[in-house]
RNA sequence: GGGUCGCUAGCUCAGCGGUAGAGCACUCGGCUUUUAACCGAUUGGUCCUGAGUUCGAAUCUCAGGCGACCCA
C-alpha cells in the first residue's frame, strides 16, 4: 500500500495510532462497559450544584467531539447516542489515580483526536459554569479515527456529502440523528399499534414473476438457476389479499417496495409502505383506522397531534376533513364532472377552464383525476380524505355501492402530498378479471405502468375473499411530516444517488 | 427531459483575467474552569474533469461529471 494513499492529516493520526499501539492502548479496543449514557447522567445528577463534586464512579464511552487543552487541565466533549457529556481532565487527578502511568494526561491530550472513540471512568463534577462533567481518573482508547471530523461549528453543509457520507452527517448533525430516531419510533409505533389490535405481520415476496398492486414500472432482475426473469415488488397488495383469502382476518406488512421511476424530493426508487387489510371492513372503516393510527403515532413521536411542517401548522387531531373528488374539483374549477357523458365534453370544458388536457387521459375519469392533480392536490394542506375515485384509475377497488362509475376508495392528502390510499377491496373475481384485462390492453397499447393479469390472484379471489378493507400508508412521507423534513432523502438514511465517479471500465 | 444555481485546503467559505486566500481543524510552543476556549508560530491545493480563447484562466467560452432547487 503506497504511503501516498494517506494525506498529512491521516498520516498524523496513523503515527499516533502506532504510538498508542506501543503503549498497549489499542488503538482498537475490544470492549468497554459504560455504566451510564449522557441522558441518564444528566437526569440522575440534575441536582448537583455548580462547582460541586459527587464521589460516584461512572464509566462513559463515546466519540470525542471537541478538545480544549489548557496546560494541566483539559475539557473534552464525548458524544454518545443520547448526547454529549463533558470530560473534566485534570493532570493532578490522573497522576494520583494512575501512579504507574505518569504520562497518562499527556498521552490523553496529545494522542486522542476529535473523532476518536474513547472510554473513561471517573467521578462527577459540575463545573463552575454549570456543565455536568466526568472527572476522569482513567481512560482507554476504543477506536482511533483516521479521518478528521468536519468543521465543529458549521458541520456538514454540503448536501451531497451529507447523503453520500451519512455516517459523517449523523456524527456532526444532531438534527439528522433526531430524524432517524423519530423515524424508528414511527415504524415501531405503527407495528405496536397494529399488533395490539391483533393484526399479524406476514412477509410476502419481494421477487415476483409479475408486478402488481399499483401503477408503476418495476425493476427487473433475473434468477440464475431457474433462468427466470423476475421483478421487484411495486406493492404488497396482491399477496396480502391472498392471505385474507387464506383466512387471516387482519394482516399487514411494513416493508420496502421498489418503483423504477424518477427521483425527486418526494420520490426515492425504494421506499417503505405499510399495507393493512381487515376482513369484514370497508373503506369507511379504513378511514377511521387511518385517522386513529396516524394520530396515535404522531402523538407518540411528536408529543402532540398539532405539529408544524415547514412553517405551516398541521393539525392531525381527528376527525379529518372528508370530501369527494368530484366536490373538490368542482370547488376548485367550477367543473361538475358528474355532468360529462363523454371524454370530448369533459376535455372541452377543461380546456375552456384553462386546464391542460393530456392525450393519455383517455376517459372522463382520468380527466377528472387530471383536474384534481392540477388544481386540488396542492391545496390539501390539512389532512383530507379524498373519496370516491373513478373506476378507470382504481382497478383493485370495489365498485361504489351507490355511485355508478366510481369506486369505494379514498386517498389521504397532507401538505399536498398523497400519504395513504385505501379501498373497499374488489373481491368479485369476474369484475376483477374484467378490470385487469382492461389494464392489460392499456399495457399492450404502451402504458408501461398498467397492471398485468395475475391469474393466481384471480384464482385466489375465486376461492373466495371476504369483504375486506385495505389501506396503504407511505411511511417515508409520513416520516417527512413528523420530522419536518422537506425532502424524502432526509428521512432515508442512504438515498439513491448516482455514483460519484464513473465506475472503472471493465 | 428543460431551466436556474453550486463544485476552490480535512470542514465552512472568500477570491471572478495578473504570484492560491481566510476562519476552524492539523503540527509546534504557552496556559488549571473551558464549552466556536484563548495567545503565538508553522503547515496544508488535481481551484470537479477535458478542450478552447488569451501574453497570462480558479476567473471567460464550449463539452462532460456530480449535486441542489424549480418546472414537465
Structure description:
There is one protein chain. The two termini are 23 Å apart. Helix 7 packs across helix 15 and helix 13 packs antiparallel against helix 14. Strand 12 and strand 13 form a beta hairpin. The protein is α+β, with helices and mostly antiparallel strands and 506 residues long. The protein binds one RNA strand of 72 nucleotides through helix 1, strand 1, strand 2, strand 3 and helix 5.
Keywords:
8-stranded mixed beta sheet; RNA-binding; 5-stranded mixed barrel; disordered C terminus; elongated; 506 residues; single chain; alpha+beta
Element layout with pairings:
Layout: H1 8-22, H2 38-44, E1 53-70, E2 73-80, E3 83-90, H3 91-97, H4 104-111, E4 117-126, E5 132-143, H5 159-164, H6 166-172, H7 174-196, E6 200-201, E7 207-208, E8 220-223, E9 228-232, H8 237-245, E10 250-258, E11 270-279, H9 283-302, E12 306-309, E13 312-315, E14 321-324, H10 325-333, H11 343-352, H12 364-375, E15 384-390, E16 406-414, E17 417-424, H13 429-444, H14 455-463, E18 468-474, H15 475-483
Helix pairs in contact: 6-7, 7-9, 7-15, 8-14, 10-12, 11-12, 13-14
The structure holds one RNA strand of 72 nucleotides.
Provide a compact summary of the structure:
The protein has 506 residues and is α+β, with helices and mostly antiparallel strands. The structure holds one RNA strand of 72 nucleotides.
Average of pLDDT: 94
Q: Report low-confidence residues grouped into runs of 5 or more.
A: 502-506
Indicate the overall shape. Answer: elongated
Radius of gyration: 29 Å
Tell me the helix content: 25-40%
